[in-house]
């Protein structure tokens, strides 16, 4: 019997979804106008800028169309994201305009929450790198994925618990945990950096430049976009109208 066998073990939890919550924001369409008009009209009131919707829409469309990007940086959104670690490894490639703080496996014991694809997750990949197409898996393929992932997760987490129970440091023991483990973080960005993120991490029929994101990070991106569209509807509409290309 190992040391880990002597202590009660927390049972793994399996998820096929992600969590995205807008926890703080200072973001509205008037922020774009405020920043843009200082160059020609000096300082202006945010409330006054919001009153003329027609002119506001026109200016925002002009800025988006001609790719005057800096006015879209004068705002802020902070999201809480809970997703598999492999999603965060892709997320952290977005460095300009993003700030991150992720939970630490050095300072806390990581909980056994793991990703298993849902039945609607396409499993079969065909095509060339960068232009893959994905197709539905068979019931047998889904069964293989489910069984293999759960078995690997349980074995890995048991090994992690065994090392912790033996007094091994958390930063060492965590090395056995897989990238399907859920982590959590705060991600703060502005509208311009978010548009860059969305242009790469969503697949959309209105996109002027095709993108082929992994579905799990696209799930995160879709939820972030929905929250942003509520905060800055004119800016979001202009982004979509002009091919989902960040200015």
CATH fold assignment: Gyrase A, domain 2
Give the second-level CATH assignment, the architecture: 2-Layer Sandwich
Tally of DSSP β-strands:
8
Order of helices and strands: EEHHHEHEEEEHHEHHH
Output the number of helix runs. 9
Count of domain modules: 1
- Shape summary: globular
Mean pLDDT: 91
Question: What is the gyration radius calculated from CA atoms?
Answer: 22 Å
Strand order, main sheet: write it out.
Answer: 2-3-8-4
Question: What is the CATH class designation?
Answer: Alpha Beta
The stretches of 5 or more residues where confidence is low (pLDDT under 50) are: 1-7
Helix content: 40-55%
Q: Which structural class matches the secondary elements?
A: alpha+beta
Distance between the termini: 61 Å
Biggest sheet layout: 4 strands, antiparallel
- Estimate the strand proportion: 15-25%
Enzyme class: transferase
Binding site for FAD: 70, 93-95, 102, 190-192, 196
Organism: Cellulomonas shaoxiangyii
Function: Catalyzes the reductive methylation of 2'-deoxyuridine-5'-monophosphate (dUMP) to 2'-deoxythymidine-5'-monophosphate (dTMP) while utilizing 5,10-methylenetetrahydrofolate (mTHF) as the methyl donor, and NADPH and FADH(2) as the reductant.
What key attributes describe this structure?
247 residues, alpha+beta, Gyrase A, domain 2, four-stranded antiparallel β-sheet, two-stranded parallel sheet, 9 helices, 43% helix, 17% strand, globular, disordered N terminus, EC 2.1.1.148
Description:
Belongs to the thymidylate synthase ThyX family. Helices cover 43% and strands 17% of the residues. With 247 residues, the chain is of the alpha+beta class. It has a 4-stranded antiparallel β-sheet with strand order 2-3-8-4. Strands 1-5 form a two-stranded parallel sheet. It has a two-stranded antiparallel ribbon with strand order 6-7. It has helices at 29-41, 46-51, 53-65, 85-91, 139-165, 170-173, 191-201, 215-231, 233-241, and strands at 13-15, 19-26, 76-84, 98-102, 113-115, 124-126, 133-135, 182-189. It has a single domain, classed as 2-Layer Sandwich (Gyrase A, domain 2), CATH 3.30.1360.170.
């Amino acid at each position: 019997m190992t040391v880990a066998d002597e202590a009660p073990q927390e049972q793994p939890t399996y998820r096929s979804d992600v969590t995205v919550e807008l926890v703080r924001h200072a973001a509205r369409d008037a922020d774009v106008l405020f920043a843009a008009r200082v160059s020609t009209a000096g300082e202006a009131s945010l409330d006054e800028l919001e009153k003329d919707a027609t002119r506001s829409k026109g200016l925002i469309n002009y800025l988006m169309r001609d790719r005057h990007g800096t006015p879209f940086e004068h705002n802020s959104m902070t999201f809480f994201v809970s997703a598999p670690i492999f999603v965060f490894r892709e997320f952290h490639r977005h460095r300009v305009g993003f700030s991150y703080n992720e939970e630490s496996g050095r300072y806390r014991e990581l909980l056994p929450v793991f990703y298993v694809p849902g039945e609607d997750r396409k499993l079969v990949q065909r095509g060339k790198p960068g232009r893959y197409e994905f197709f539905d898996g068979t019931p047998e393929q889904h069964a293989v994925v489910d069984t293999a992932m759960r078995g690997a997760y349980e074995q890995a987490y048991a090994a992690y618990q065994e090392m912790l129970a033996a007094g091994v440091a958390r930063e060492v023991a965590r090395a056995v945990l897989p990238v399907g483990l859920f982590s959590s973080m705060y991600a703060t960005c502005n509208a311009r950096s978010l548009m860059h993120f969305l242009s790469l991490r969503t697949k959309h029929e209105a996109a002027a430049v095709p993108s082929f994101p992994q579905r799990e990070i696209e799930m995160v991106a879709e939820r972030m976009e929905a929250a942003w569209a509520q905060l800055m509807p004119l800016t979001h509409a202009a982004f979509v109208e002009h091919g989902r290309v960040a200015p």
